[in-house]
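fold description:
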Amino acid sequence: MNTLFKSIVTIATVAVLAACGTSVKRMDADETVDLSGAWNDTDSRLVAEEMISDVLSRPWISTYTQQNGKTPAVIVGSIKNLSHEHINTNTFINDMERELINSGQVDFVASSNQRGEIRDERVDQDLNATDDSRNAAGQERGADFMLQGQINTIIDANSSDQVRFYQVDLTLISMADNRKVWIGQKKLKKYVSNSKLRY
């Protein structure tokens, strides 16, 4: 009798643990899933693609190329998150960098953090690399334009329902004379019903 009771308890415990177990479903990375209504990977990718498509279609590229006889070099500066929620701006910056580089219409300059690491490597090469494989300092391509921007939100909430409005503003600035050569803006609006997301 005691053994039967122990077996029943063991089976019941296993059943409860199995019911509470984690379930994982693999998905395509481009598949859109919006669980909370917050800014997500799909928003980042779509906004980057649309805004970079717009900046690359404007006359500043052909004007620069005609005046200077070379492809413009671009660097992404700071993208400030001024929204109500945590947004990983690094993924957004990476999405924009990918679109710019893969367009073939601009040269792309490494960020300040990346340049620091590369410069350290050049110093090491000066000391340790052979003459024919050494990369000399002072040969870097300077950026001609910097892309800067910010992400803002407006939240309109009533009880458990929300309208979440996102506005992304980007500006492309000439490094030579601080002229703004392009201003882009993208707006997103989401209606979130029975929201558990708070601001």
Notes: Residues 39-128+141-192 form a domain with the Rossmann fold fold (CATH 3.40.50.10610). The two ends are 57 Å apart (CA to CA). The chain has five helices and five strands.
